[in-house]
Amino acid sequence: MDRYNCNRIYITQDDQEKIKETRILIAGAEIGSVIAECALRIGFEDIVIADGGKVEECNLNAHNYTKADIGKFKAERLAKRLLRINPSANIQFHNIDPDNDNIIGLLKDVKIAINTIPFSNDIAFVFDQLCSQKRIPVLHPYNFGWGAFLTIVKPGGYQLTEIASSNEGFDITLADYVSRYSAFWDMPNRWLNQIIDTYRQEDMQCQLPQLSVASWVLAGHCVNVLFDIVTGKEVKFFPKFYFSSLRCDPA
After folding, report:
1. Fold (topology level) of 14-156+210-243
2. Which three-class secondary structure state does DSSP give residue 92?
């Protein structure tokens, strides 16, 4: 039986071929590790992974690694996992963090990018700007624990710098953006407000804590959007976004 036989009805043969031939770049292999596997299983077989970090035990709560991966390069271990699922897929990995010197090379022949680069410096913003110049849409998934947030930067469209021009504290700035937007449309997320308040009481030197719940919800949302972009369906672009949580409060 064909690998994608169970995709039938949901995905046409023509669309299956389109996604198979679409190269995607996953910049950052933490949440990106979960997204990569979901993308591969639905039929994206041309995947580039870039991450210079090594797996730590704290990655095991929300990312697609095992205890045996600890101490080894995330990109390499993820690539090997994906190839065990589909040995015929074209999986490229780079044990490097995207930076000013290598982004252009990483973007070669890429049609869609997924940006999960930490906001420890301005590279995440630079990455989006270069993708925009190359007409590459960029998915930005964020793990808010019980909630999954996804926005897409359209080539030539608004950039995330509309929210804040500095990378410093950008994770919490983005969480604030989601909270304010939801409250404005009378869809409050009081649980998210509590998370933001508690995080602010910490030193805020680390990124927001994550849960496996949001990682797996994000993977599904990202792959849905990847499929929709490739097949010409409408998606929401930044400043609009997707946000899913069973903990959303009633108005």
Report:
1. Rossmann fold (3.40.50)
2. strand
